[in-house]
Amino acid sequence: MNLSKKLIILPVLLICLNTFADELVADLQKACIKEQLGAHKGLKGHPLVARDFTDYCKCEADSIMEKATKEQLNEISEKPYTNPNWLKQLKSSALKSCIQQPSQSTV
Question: How far apart are CA 101 and CA 70, in angstroms?
Fold first, then answer.
């Protein structure tokens, strides 16, 4: 394959990889929100909704994308309802870094 064909194909491949990553992040966020809503169901106080977990789940998904290997990302892409031990460990690690204390507002 000559250089001009490679230069034409490269941007297409980069777009496809970015699309794959964006879709995987979105899927991870949706799964996280569903998991969090289930885990916090029945808590007293105001009812929790998906947006209550948006920031946390975005952080968790970003953390997983950053720390997982290509093979691991392929695994959860191909089997979205699986929850292997390595994913549990990455979620646990994300929990520690993504949980934030309530912000102190000043008047």
Answer: 32
Q: What is the pLDDT of residues 20-45, one digit of tens each?
A: 678 899 999 999 999 999 988 877 77
The token pair at 55 is: 């920031």
Higher pLDDT, 91 or 12: 91
Please compute Rg for the chain using Cα positions: 18
Contacts 24+ apart (CB under 8 A), 57-60: 57/28, 57/29, 57/32, 57/33, 58/29, 59/94, 59/97, 59/98, 60/28, 60/29, 60/32, 60/91, 60/94, 60/95, 60/98
Model pTM above 0.85: no
